[in-house]
Amino acid sequence: MSNHSTLVNKVFLNITALLFIFAISACKKEPPETTTPVVEAPDTLAKPAVVTIEENADISQWDFNGDGEPDDRITVPVVEGSGNPVEDGIPGKFTITFDDKKLPDLAVGCCNPMPVGEGDLNGDGAAELSVFQSPMNGCVHTMTTYTFRNGKWKQLFEPFLVPTGCDEMTKEELEALVYKENGKVYFMETDVNDENLKKSPKEVKL
Hints:
This protein is an alpha+beta fold. It has helices spanning 3-27, 59-62, 171-175, and strands at 49-51, 74-76, 78-79, 93-98, 106-109, 114-119, 128-133, 140-149, 152-155, 160-163, 178-181, 184-190, 199-204. The strands form 3 sheets. Strands 1, 2, 3, 4 and 5 form a 5-stranded antiparallel beta sheet that branches. Strands 6, 7, 8, 9 and 10 form a 5-stranded antiparallel beta sheet that branches.
């Protein structure tokens, strides 16, 4: 065999060996790094949102314990939620608190409560408190009316739904959702089949 053939064979064998080594190295991939997912805990108690009531609030509308003083100094501390509550997120928690500590806190859940002083609806000498709340998702709100009785907040009647079509409601519209007329209490029921979401009064049996 010529020297040239011998050299070619040596080069071929060397290249083959290198390719073999490269193939083995390629198969020994390092396992991908694994990381532990970090789940952020919900925030602790956030700064309270102060609900602004008119400076000269009508005592009869806001005197919830019947002591002759308006209970219109209200704050709403919030425990912030995270994510979308409808998709396994954590909803926020809202609580209505009063400067008058004779009135206990009122936990109302989620979300964005707006208090409305209703005046004396049940004739017990003290005003009732309605809470208009946003939903966790969508545009159908709720309205719940409470009475302060025997040192506790209790629902005066069943909460009702308030579809809004995602439009904001004015203060006057909120105040008109529950009212008393000629000794009877009414709430405004929404016709969900009406494209304008027409409302009509429905009597409440107390």
